[in-house]
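Lab meeting notes turned into a lecture example. A postdoc, R.K., suggested we walk through two folding results consecutively so the class can see how the record format repeats. The first protein's sequence and structure tokens come next.
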Amino acid sequence: MRKMLAILFALMLGFAALAPVALAQDDGNGDTSDTENQAYIRYANWRTDGIGADFYFDGEQSDTANLEAGAVGQWTAVDAGAHTFGAVDTGADFDEAGAEPNELELTPGQWMTVITIGSAEASNLRTFAVPIDAQELVPGTSMITFVNALDGETRVNFDRDGVPFVTELAPPGNADGLISDTSIPVDSETYTFTAYPTGEPDNLIGELADVDMVATNYYLLAVVEGAEGPELVMDETRFAEMLMARGDLEAPGTLLEAARGQELLAPFVQLLEETGLSEELTGEGPYTVFAPADFAVDEARSRLGDDQEALANWMRGHIVEGDLKFQNVYESESLTALTGDTLTIEQIDNTASVNGAEILTPNVAAMNGTLHIVGAEPVG
């Protein structure tokens, strides 16, 4: 049933969430460019010597400076086209360090992770780029990019729940021209991942047990050189982070900014501000908000008048603690609102209703939770 819902929602919502849109966006240097020609880049420092890294892009130091070992930076929008990139020790000059730039061709709408591996002391510091398949994810799915980021010749297998899932990923730049990364969409469930050298299942590199894959989020699973040998690491990107990089969600990307970005929720945002609840939705959370569409807010105003306490209570009755994606809601029988009231969930046709209010648009992403736009509740 859930897979059928995912397909139906894909048809209903289309495949536009990560497609380029024509917006003017500041690149961080005071310049604006058309997002139809934008690509997106971030940096990962997986060096074996534990030293921080400064990353360079087209000969200039990027905004990602002093990225500590093991850390992954934020997504940044850049112009598509031909570029160069590289990395040096934090505080070092790229030219004086004798670093050799790498060439990179970015296509519009492409998402790329630049990874540095190796050790400066051993004169084998290397930087390479890994594409992230940022295709539109239907509700109930996540995207995983698997990477072999070892510095050597060892090929790697990744198992999921004890079954081979990705096999024979070779290290980057290998002489045989074999791939070192691949992206695969998966159902958003709980999995255990293990990694080991190809042909040596008993020689475990690492295990990530009981990983909850959150719907609409993107994951990077990589085998990297650790302080005591190869290890398995994971990085998670919330969909809201990608929307902010693309300019479709205003930073800091809270539920309030997410609501402001939805035309149907303009009256809802106004009521949030009137009742003083806007601050609550900019807090740490996380919260799930069943945000009433414009006509639903109009109906509530006509029923409750100017009673601010009653309106605030009505609004809080649409907010639940925790970050619940659509499939979490769909699979629930009831939820508890901040008011303590019970919200009854019913499955109807291709969606669900909350106290009789149909979910019109699911999974509006934010950094501190999720919005689901709903219609009006039945009266009487």
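The second example is placed directly after the first for contrast:
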Amino acid sequence: MSSATVQAPAAVAPPGGESEWHRVWQRLRRKRLAMASLVVIAVIYVAGIFASVLAPYSYNQTNLDIPRQGPSRSHPLGTDTLGRDMLSRTMYSARTTLIVTTAVILSGSLIIGNGLGLLSGYRGGWIDAVIMRVGDVFSSLPGLVMLILINASLGPRVTEAVRGLERMTGVSGLVASGFPSYLLVFSALSLFSWVGTARIIRAQILQLRERDFITSAEALGATPWRVIRYHLLPNVSFLIILQVSATLGGIAGSEIVLTWFGVGVQPPAASFGAMLFEGSGPRTFQAYPHLLLVPGVVVTMLLFAFNLLGDALNDAVRGR
């Protein structure tokens, strides 16, 4: 039997030499809202990545002589209660959101969620039962409450552990950079973000494993790892992309909410949640509207762009 017989259908290029990924991209390019969303996301995250170069000030540089100052030539977006430049803190907050979101997507969705979903759907039996029952336990817990409890209870311990790591290795600046907060927040979010992804992938794999090309690959002696990697994974790749695009906004929003509650990314690291908390309150907003408007507008644009991009990508994959 030829190798083409046992290959997953998604791995075979469509007629005309044009790959399915290329066709999806062409359909996506024709959607103006999708392209505008990509530009917004790219601008915000590029500003965060290069914040140390682009930001006019350091995110923790204080000036108590100019607290809560409105927009000016030296501070285009104004200053906060400690006289820190709002534009600089916005850029560094975008970096924080990017770091946490990327870490959660890579660990919680792509590795844990997809890995367990592929394994559960293909192997079945007691492996499937154990993975799904563990997922049921996590999904039955109140997600936001558990995230707050985990971050509030483990925050000091993680910080002390990182300080001990600094003393052991001689590497300084980990605590000052906010690394303990990043580590705890993305670990807690990853703990609860994999369940939905695993269930969706498992449901698709349960259908695919009965197909002829899977049976043929197994008959030719393909190992379970090879079947999963070369035959099942290519067939759920579009589903994985859709799932990631759908969860990006939710993960970014969760990090911001946790920090707003005071149990997310901790000072001195900059975060949109901390900026929103500082500017919240009717009296504060009436006196100093820029404290809430600056982070509020950026966060709204970012989450709205993620939602628009996810919808457009879903339509592009479905050929619309």
